[in-house]
Q: What sequence folds into this?
């Protein structure tokens, strides 16, 4: 059996001359048995659709902030750098993956991009816009990034729970923005930090459409749950590949 091909949406430099992906994402997917390939952002909707015809899964990597125009807001003063090219490329890609039920794993910016593409919104600047019930945790930890920072409670019966087999995880946290409730109807929360910040969302009516706010790619070689997440995604991609080839 061939390895499932997993399209990876990565980062783009500020001058938009270079696309890149941190090797940790590639290494985590390879370790799980997938074949990760970086997707070029110079594809219009039709080219993206043709590209997805040849993919068995999708990985949405971390990166910069998402432009608030995508969820109908004006930029606040604490908004970080945004990438117009990536903000243009990803929403149609994500909606197509959702419609086709292509196994999709979103990480950090990825979970945010999933929520926004399907009609949700973000805290543009988590520290100033989210009270966290008066006990907002640190969500932008210092290095090293393979050390957990806060807990995440995993929703019983969720796809994520089935992947990691734990009601509570210790996760790292390197995010400036976060998914803001209410979620689009097709998504539900599957992980939350103790301060209420959404740390995981999934689409219950899809085989594998899951986003996490932490960075399992930085911990897959030292944390069972992180490796299990990539393993479950690759397994879903193999399942999807089998259905396609039949
Ligand atoms: Mn966090």
A:
């Amino acid at each position: 059996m061939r390895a499932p091909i997993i399209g990876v949406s990565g980062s783009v430099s500020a001058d938009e001359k270079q696309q890149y992906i941190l090797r940790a994402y590639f290494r985590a997917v390879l370790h799980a048995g997938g074949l990760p390939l970086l997707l070029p952002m110079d594809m219009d909707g039709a080219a993206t659709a043709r590209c997805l015809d040849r993919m068995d899964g999708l990985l949405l990597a971390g990166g910069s902030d998402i432009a608030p125009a995508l969820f109908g807001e004006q930029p606040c003063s604490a908004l970080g750098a945004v990438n117009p090219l990536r903000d243009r490329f990803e929403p149609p890609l994500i909606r197509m993956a959702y419609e086709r039920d292509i196994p999709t794993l979103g990480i950090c910016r990825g979970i945010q991009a999933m929520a926004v593409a399907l009609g949700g919104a973000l805290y543009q600047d988590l520290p100033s816009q989210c009270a966290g019930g008066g006990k907002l945790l640190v969500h932008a930890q210092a290095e090293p990034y393979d050390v957990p920072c806060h807990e995440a409670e995993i929703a019983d019966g969720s796809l994520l729970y089935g992947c990691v087999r734990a009601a509570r995880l210790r996760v790292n946290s390197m995010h400036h923005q976060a998914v803001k409730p209410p979620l689009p109807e097709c998504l539900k929360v599957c992980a939350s930090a103790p301060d209420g910040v959404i740390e995981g969302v999934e689409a219950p009516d899809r085989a594998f459409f899951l986003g996490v706010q932490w960075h399992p790619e930085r911990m897959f070689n030292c944390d069972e749950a992180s490796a299990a997440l990539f393993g479950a995604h690759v397994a879903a991609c193999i399942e999807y590949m089998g259905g396609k080839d039949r």
In short: Helices lie at 23-32, 45-53, 84-100, 109-117, 126-129, 159-164, 224-245.
